[in-house]
């Protein structure tokens, strides 16, 4: 597993380097083709959502929404509201974690 | 590279990487719990040097994903760097090649954002008139307020600094020096901010790797990861210039597909969610733009 991981990091890191260097070091002053630019703009929202949503909902996926909400879901909703309002990353993180602990502690 | 630029960049990036402390530490904890050797897990920090991609890769690898799929996921998560690279390339067109090759390695979201806020009005392609240059000298301190000591890269060259033996007109050496100074400052700035962020990032992640043994599981610290990505998603949506509907569509599709595909082998659910989400965003943008074009007279 460690050899696989190292291989993935080296390969993934090399590709990342090439992307960072793409225009700065190789292509120089140039324009991203509009189609590519349009796609790149949405990498952030799509990737971040794909990472967080399955983790918040848990094992049962969307079925979790039909049941009593778990502490994780409630904490995410609270943190999401704070994050949207304040755009403050550490504060949002703190609110999310404290909510989770309180909800778990209260046994809700 | 201008040493003042190096200092200003290194100092300027610190507040921007403070939010990365919990991220780095939690990533370290995730590495600790992944079953990977700690050194190998930590090596992702200096090889890939991109938190989101490292996190996803560590998790996929812990589940037994192969080299290629894990690397492909890293590439897709990191694809946004092409945007940054293209956005700054023009401002460094005249920089030496070695600098471009080295600095590319430390180009991250935060250093891009910091540079983006740095004025470069005096970097015009040599057509800055003398009038412009003196105007810059007068306002440089205010315009360039990154370093707290108010250093401006362009307040050095007075007209008599120009090499007298140059045969060019009296104005030209000033402009050339000015532009060179500004470039040197910017080079130092981007490089300094990137290196500082790099060093701090290695420390945060290592801290998490080591703390992972000490922090009790009952703290559910690993749950900070989804909260963090939720916040990043909200920031990414809110940072969109103009209409945010396409970004919301990208997030909705990306998240929903990843949930439905959560049990797909080798983390391909995440990959598929990312790809379909990106497509949904781009498609929505196209549709909205077309509709607007039709609505407009």
The arrangement of helices and strands of chain B along the chain is: HHHHHHHHHHHHH
The DSSP helix count of chain B reads 13
Structural Rg of chain B: 23 Å
Low-confidence stretches of chain B: 121-172
Number of E strands of chain A: 0
N-to-C CA distance of chain B:
52 Å
Oligomeric category: heterodimer
Give the radius of gyration of chain A: 20 Å
Describe this structure in words.
The complex is a heterodimer of chains A (108) and B (297). With 108 residues, chain A is an all-alpha fold. Chain A has helices at residues 2-27, 34-41, 43-57, 71-86, 89-106. Chain A starts with a helix and ends with a helix. In chain A, helix 4 (71-86) packs antiparallel against helix 5 (89-106). Chain B has two domains: 3-211, no CATH class; 240-295, no CATH class. The longest helix of chain B has 40 residues, at 172-211. Chains A and B meet through helix 1, helix 2, helix 3, helix 4 and helix 5 of A and helix 3, helix 4, helix 5, helix 6 and helix 7 of B.
């Amino acid at each position: 597993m460690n050899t696989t991981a190292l291989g993935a990091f080296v390969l993934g890191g090399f590709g990342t380097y090439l992307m960072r260097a793409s225009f700065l070091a190789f292509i120089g002053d140039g324009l991203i083709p509009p189609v590519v630019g349009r796609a790149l703009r949405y990498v952030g929202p799509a990737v971040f959502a794909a990472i967080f949503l399955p983790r918040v909902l848990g094992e049962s996926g969307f079925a979790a929404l039909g049941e009593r909400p778990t502490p994780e879901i409630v904490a995410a909703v609270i943190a999401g509201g704070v994050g949207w309002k304040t755009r403050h990353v550490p504060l949002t993180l703190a609110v999310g974690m404290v909510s989770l602990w309180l909800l778990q502690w209260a046994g809700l | 590279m201008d040493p003042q630029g190096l200092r200003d960049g290194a100092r300027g990036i610190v507040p921007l990487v403070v939010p990365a402390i919990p991220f780095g530490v939690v990533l370290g904890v995730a590495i600790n719990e992944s079953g990977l050797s700690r050194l190998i897990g930590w090596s992702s920090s200096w090889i890939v040097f991109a938190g989101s991609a490292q996190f996803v890769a560590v998790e996929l690898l812990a589940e037994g994903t192969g080299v290629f799929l894990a690397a492909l996921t890293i590439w897709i998560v990191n694809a946004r760097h092409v945007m940054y690279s293209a956005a700054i390339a023009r401002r460094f067109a005249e920089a030496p090649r070695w600098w471009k090759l080295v600095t590319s390695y430390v180009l991250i979201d935060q250093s891009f954002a910091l540079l983006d806020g740095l004025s470069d009005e005096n970097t015009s392609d040599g057509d800055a008139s003398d009038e412009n240059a003196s105007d810059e000298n007068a306002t440089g301190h205010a315009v360039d307020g990154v370093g707290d000591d108010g250093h401006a890269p362009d307040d050095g060259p007075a007209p008599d600094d120009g090499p007298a033996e140059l045969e060019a007109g009296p104005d030209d050496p000033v402009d050339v020096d000015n532009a060179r100074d500004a470039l040197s400052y910017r080079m130092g700035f981007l490089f300094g901010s990137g290196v500082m962020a790099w060093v701090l990032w290695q420390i945060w992640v290592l801290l998490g790797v080591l703390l992972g043994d000490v922090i009790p599981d009952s703290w559910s610290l690993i749950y900070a990861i989804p909260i963090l990505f939720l916040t990043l998603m909200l920031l990414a949506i809110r940072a969109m210039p103009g209409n945010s509907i396409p970004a919301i569509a990208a997030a909705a599709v990306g998240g929903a597909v990843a949930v439905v595909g959560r049990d797909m082998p080798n983390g391909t659910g995440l990959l598929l969610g990312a790809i379909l989400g990106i497509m949904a965003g781009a498609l929505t943008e196209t549709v909205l733009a077309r509709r607007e074009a039709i609505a407009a007279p």
